[in-house]
Amino acid sequence: MPEIATLAQCSEATVWRILAYWRDHNVVKNPFAQSRGRPRVLDEGDYRYIQGLIDARPKIYLDELQEELEVYRGVSISIATISRTLHRLALSCKKVSPAALERNELLRATWIAAYGDIPREYFMWLDESSVDDLTNQRQYGWALLGRACVSRDTFIRGQRYSILPALTCDGIVALDIFEGSVNKERFIRFLREQIVGLFHCILQQ
User: What Cα–Cα distance (Å) separates residue 99 from each residue in 58, 109, 138, 168?
Assistant: First the structure.
């Protein structure tokens, strides 16, 4: 006990009390103690409603959350309270990662069910990527409160370079880097000249 108290920087009585709470109630604090401060305006149902709104509409604004709570939950709260609630729910504002609306989860699940037993070393993944003068420009920055964050950057994309890789579990097995964008003809040429040629070499071995 003295060693635990020293490491936790508390008294031995505190250690004994915490152990007693854990033994009797499976918690580390008194479950019957009254909470301090003003009672919260929002209850667990409101928290779940907010979480559901965020899941369904991740780009919703705070004032929209405020309106939804008032209309459908009958709760009138301030924007500051909503902000503190989101922080309490471990939700933070960040850059949106877009997901294709056209993606069909049912078709994905059907494909996995049909081909999920194929060994992964049989697969080859192909995709294109490109880079230009706008690629490395950052989307966020810092500035004084009440002032816009302004950074002088080029608005001209410049010359674009594209890359066509073929990736397997062993790494990149075929690669084409060229100036310009990928089009249908370029992609088909890559398949014929490199991918088909690669399979011919494998079959000959």
Answer: 12, 17, 20, 24
